[in-house]
Amino acid sequence: MLSAIEIEKISHELRHVPVKKAACIEALKIVQQERRWVSDESVADIAAMLEMSAAEVDSVATFYNLIFRKPVGRHIILLCDSISCYVMGYTALRQRLHEILLIGYGQTTADERFTLLPNACLGTCDHAPALMIDEDLYRDLQPEDLEQILEKYH
Predict the structure, then answer these.
(1) DSSP track, 25-72
(2) What is the mean pLDDT of residues 108-113?
(3) pLDDT tens, residue by residue, 16-44
(4) Distance between CA 139 and CA 132 in Å, rounded?
(5) How do strand 131-133 and strand 75-80 relate by DSSP bridges?
(6) Of 83, 7, 2, 13, which Cα lies nearest the Cα of 35?
(7) Average pLDDT rounded to a whole number, residues 50-78
(8) What's the chain's Rg over C-alpha atoms?
(9) Which residues contact 86 (CB under 8 A, 6 or more apart)?
(10) Which is nearest to 130 in space by CA: 140, 118, 120?
(11) For this UniProt entry, which segments traverse the membrane (predicted)?
């Protein structure tokens, strides 16, 4: 069941679109912001609110790689694996993240602090290699930078 806050925020978005379906991605983002991921139950609730089928909402949710359909950690690490990052040290960063966090791509640390995901490009090729944690972009990284960066996130 959507919370009162989620319903209020989605209703707010509905006032800015010509048809309810147009608020689908915003509704998914609102639910994810509140819960960190979007469950099947939430998909069904959003579908009912937007007068869509659950399959339609799910197709939107699964199209976007940053809408999470399973539980994730409190912080999402997006490690850029573009050709620029690959050439500039991506492999060493990935290895160091694995050593520190003991997880691979698509996995979440045991304390639910971090989820590690690949990202095709973070748009900062001139400062490769790069990663994002939540909304924070880190560029020109070296493997020895990672522990200090990760300590900022609890």
Answers:
(1) HHHHHHHHHHHSS--HHHHHHHHHHHT--HHHHHHHHHHSTTS-SS--
(2) 96
(3) 999 999 999 999 999 999 999 999 999 99
(4) 9
(5) antiparallel
(6) 2
(7) 96
(8) 18
(9) 129
(10) 140
(11) none
* Cα 112 from chain centre: 14
DSSP element (H, E) containing 97: helix 90-101
Distance between CA atoms of residues 69 and 66, nearest Å: 9
> Using 50, 70 and 90 to split pLDDT, how confident is the model at 124?
very high
**How many other CB atoms sit within 10 Å of the CB of residue 112?**
13
Q: Report the percent of the chain where pLDDT is more than 90.
A: 99
Structure confidence at residue 59 (pLDDT)? 97
Q: How many angstroms separate the Cα of 140 from the Cα of each of 13, 20, 99, 125, 152?
A: 38, 42, 20, 10, 18
Six-digit token string for 90: 């991506």
Report the predicted TM-score, pTM, of the whole model to 2 decimal places: 0.84
Per the omega criterion (within 30 degrees of 0), is the bond before 18 cis?
Answer: no
For the record, the structure tokens of 73 come out as 């950690």
Per the rule left: phi > 0, alpha: psi between -120 and 50, beta: everything else, 52 is beta
